[in-house]
Amino acid sequence: MRLSVRSIIGYGAGDAANNLAFTLGTAFLLLYYTDVVGLPAAAVGAMFLVVRLWDAFADLFAGRVVDRTMTRMGKFRPFILLGAVPLLVLSVLTFAVPKGWSGGAQLLYAYLTYAVLGLVYSLVNVPYGSLASAMTQLSRERAKLATARGLGAASAGLLLTFIIAPQIQSITRDKTLSAAVRAEQLQSVFLTTTILFVGVGAALYFLTYKWCREVVVRVQPRVSIRETFGTLRTNKPLGILCGSSFFYLIGLFAVGGATAYYAIYVLGDARYIIWMTLVTVVVQFATAPFIPRLVARFGKKNLYQYCGLFTVAGGVALFFTPGSLPLLALLFVAVKGFGVQLINTLMFALEADTVEYGEWQTGRRTEGATYAIFSFTRKITQSIGGALGAFALALGGYVSTLGPAAAQPETAIIAIKASLGLIPAAAAVLAMLVFIRYPLTEERYSAMVAETDARKLALLETPTISRIPVPATA
User: Fold this and answer.
1) With contact defined as beta carbons under 8 Å apart, do 49 and 254 qualify?
2) Is 153 helix (H, G, I), strand (E, B) or coil?
3) What angle, 0 to 180 degrees and rounded to 10, lies between the N-to-C axes of helices 236-261 and 326-362?
4) Among 41, 192, 407, 469, which residue carries the largest CB count within 10 Å?
5) What average pLDDT does the structure give for the chain?
6) Whether 216 contacts 352, CB under 8 Å
7) What DSSP assignment string belongs to 67-135?
8) If you ran DSSP here, which 8-state letter would residue 1 be given?
């Protein structure tokens, strides 16, 4: 079915809410732990690796819970409604590491709060991501949902940056402040922002719950563990998509933590956090309206296959751009941003298509488990990518301070530039190589959905049949 404008906006609002917690962590949590709390970069890198691996398994748990759930409100919407406030409150606690505690106690607090935040995020985000496949089966309509999701995330990131980055700039440029006072003032900035977002995020999640509806017919409401993993084992497109996104997202998450460092220590001014984010978001907003048309023209598979070229070109150029040429750096940030927008939008649209493949192949519709395994991959890459950024700082000899760029050794500057440019470029090359074998063209997808719908209709008209027939070939 075709989606209403309200349902598309409602779906985008959900990812805006997700990113009030998620983007704050990816963009500023590393900076918060190293320069506000004072934890060593290597210790933070190890924590990111461990906790985000935990998050990956939390996604699998969430997928199982979702696939065993069916209520009068739907399969996915209740999780979004009930999990919103706990998730946002946990974001507050994550950025509230107690002062005066020993370094070991602070690190333990960081581990615990970040791990619980990841679990609750999974219980909200897995149902949210799965919701798209239950709202429509039309490829172009799903592209609209994926685009709305990308715009929602970009809007949240832009809002965060405009609230936090000017305050970071003001604090870091005041040379009369001691390191302790700077840390105290930044602590207040992060805490106030996360508290504000409890109310904003809850309202956005409510719009998703209110305006989005689950309409795709589901003839098998509960899926056993055996059936779930049977579906996943036979879903070749999902496996290839996860493999490709594994590499793309390693680069993406390495960039998330490096942006603030690049602005402060390479370009020499925290205000460039705003400009880098603004350039990326402008590119995303300018690109978004054309993505459904591009999908209709080239197909999701072809478009996704080659969009990594922008990441490669922008990333390599950004690494070699001198910090004295900020406008040129912003240009290459825009080139990368165009590629990232296409990658993120198409990635979620393709994931929804793999749900249809799984149902066509096995006769069982497992949105929660399919999205969970996809999200599991994202969390693994978040773990590796985030840890790479932190470990790169440690290897480069980064000094935990909010001082000027001259306070950092040249090796640290190179590490920051590599995290922002070379790591994403190399990862994109590997991602494109993996995706070559992805089998679902637009024509094959349409034929597959039509065949599945015919089998559903036959089943509904013959109540004595207890299962959907499984096709003989893949």
Assistant:
1) no
2) helix
3) 160
4) 41
5) 84
6) no
7) HT--BTTBSSHHHHHHHHHHHHHHHHHHT-PPTTS-HHHHHHHHHHHHHHHHHHHHHHHHHHHHHHHHH
8) -
Sign, CA torsion 158/161/164/170: negative
pLDDT per position as a tens digit, 334-356: 998 888 888 888 887 888 888 88
What CA–CA distance (Å, rounded) separates 347 from 338? Answer: 14
pLDDT of residue 310: 93
CA 213 to CA 10: how far, in whole Å?
A: 10
Neighbours of 45 (CB within 10 A): 24
Q: Can you list the alpha helix ranges (DSSP code H) found in 262-366?
A: 271-287, 291-298, 300-306, 308-320, 326-362
Whole-angstrom Cα distance, residue 268 to residue 97?
A: 28
> Distance between CA atoms of 27 and 97, rounded to whole angstroms?
17
75 contacts: CB under 8 Å, gap ≥ 6? 66, 69, 127, 130, 134, 214, 218, 221, 367, 368
**b (16+ CB within 10 A) / e for 424-462:** bbbbbebbbebbeebebebeebeebbeebeebbeebeee
Percent of the residues in the chain that have a pLDDT greater than 90, as a whole number: 29
Assign residue 468 a region (left: φ > 0; alpha: ψ between -120 and 50; beta: otherwise): beta
In sequence order, what are the residues at sequence separation of 6 or more whose Cβ sits closer than 8 angstroms to the Cβ of residue 231?
223, 358, 361, 362, 364, 366, 369, 370
Phi-psi category of residue 136: left, alpha or beta, with phi > 0 → left and psi -120 to 50 → alpha: beta
Could you state, in order of their start, the residue ranges of all structural domains in the chain? 7-215+234-454
Sign of the CA dihedral running 191, 197, 199, 201: negative
| CA triple 376-382-388, angle to 5 deg | 140
Structure-token match 């805006």, residue found = 16
Is the predicted pLDDT of residue 430 greater than 90, yes or no? yes
- CA 238 to centroid of chain Cα atoms: 17
DSSP string, 349-369: HHHHHHHHHHHHHHS---HHH
How many residues does this entry show for the chain?
A: 474
Tokens of 352: 């929804």
Structure tokens of 430?
A: 């590997």
Helices (H), ranges, 136-233: 139-173, 179-211, 225-233
- Determine the Cα–Cα distance for residues 315 and 270; give it in Å rounded to an integer: 20
Question: What kind of architecture, by CATH, is found in domain 7-215+234-454?
Answer: Up-down Bundle (1.20)
